[in-house]
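Final report, Chapter 2: Outcomes

The project's central promise was a pipeline that accepts a single protein chain and returns its three-dimensional structure in a standardized token representation, suitable for archiving and comparison. That pipeline is now operational. To close this chapter, we reproduce one record exactly as it appears in the project archive, with the input sequence first and the structure output second.
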Amino acid sequence: MNSQKTWILCCFFNFLIACVFGLLMRFMYLFPLDFLNYSFLLHAHSHVAMLGWVYLIVYVLVVHFFIPKEKSQKPIYNRLFWLTEFSVIGMMIAFPIQGYALFSIIFSTMHILLSYVFCRLIWKDCLRDKSPSQRLLLASILFMILSTFGVWCLGPAVSTLGKQSAFYQIAIQFFLHFQFNGWFILAILALFLKQFQGKIDEVKFNKFYFLMVIATLLTVCFPVRWFIENDVLSYINGLGILLQLGAFICFYKMLKPQITHFKKTLDKTTKIVYGLALCSLFLKVGIQLLTIFPNLAEVSHQIRNFVIGFIHLTTLGIITGFLFGILLQNKMLSANSSILKIGMKCFISGYILTEVLLFLQGWFFFFGKGSIPGYFQSILIFSILLVLGLILIMTSLRNKKQEPISR
């Protein structure tokens, strides 16, 4: 088994574990388990999903698409991958047992330090072609570094003001905002752009790039506003959201001339997965536009179902959707496998059904209607589809004959 296939399997293993943690959390609402701490499990779920699945699969694809073959074969990339996986396994074990404590902090700090090594390597080895996809990738890496400043503020925040302080909460939100909206989404869009063979209009790309970077910087005001009462923050966030809308309009215009040809090169499963990713992206922009209205901005973070629904929309819909599309398009996942097709259907069904239920329950709370009958039982059953889908996708990957992968 070649190292790339092993890497991909390893990323899917992390994703499966993160989903199992999520399933356990939903199980605990119905059948409390005394030996498991819910909030510890939540930390494990979020860290493994973010750092074990999204970060590492982006690592694999960035090395594959952006690093020249002779440089990507260097032992440093393989060593760095397995060291990073070691830190993820450390978090996988430490978080459910002790939550935020000595060992989990050691492993998560180790992950950040290794991510700096990754940034340095990419900066050094990346093709110096100044193409749109490469510029987007380098911007995403700068956002990743920026996001970690939030983590380094956590220690001083706890020791001076405590965990309940606004400073501590803002530091966490700063990290999450720039990880998701800066590093992950820009890296995914860079990888997606790399799939287009034709020439990309530089003028349209520059508009998209400029608007997207400014919008990402401005919209950090949204989570900050939860802890600091100031209308100026709402106005800055509103401007950021409108710029983001403008950025995606430019993005669409930039790719429009190539869309028909691009679609012709894809098989049915890949089209469905990309379609899901783009619909999720459209929904995310739409939801963020709604938060311009103050009363909706207020409930968006007070009603937990909305928060979880939005996080899953970003991670499972947009990020994972694009990642699955890229893996399928480049034959890293076998689109011809019947096991994979069933797995994808299970995963997508689980994602859509849990999202609908989460947002529906959120609206029930918003209108004071209480709980949806059978809500916890239904969401548990729908979550099983996500886990089952991933197991089937991994099975198809294990059985897959190695095919030549386009580069």
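Archive annotation: Residues 229 and 303 are 19 Å apart (CA to CA).
This record, like all others produced under the grant, will remain available to the consortium after the project formally closes.
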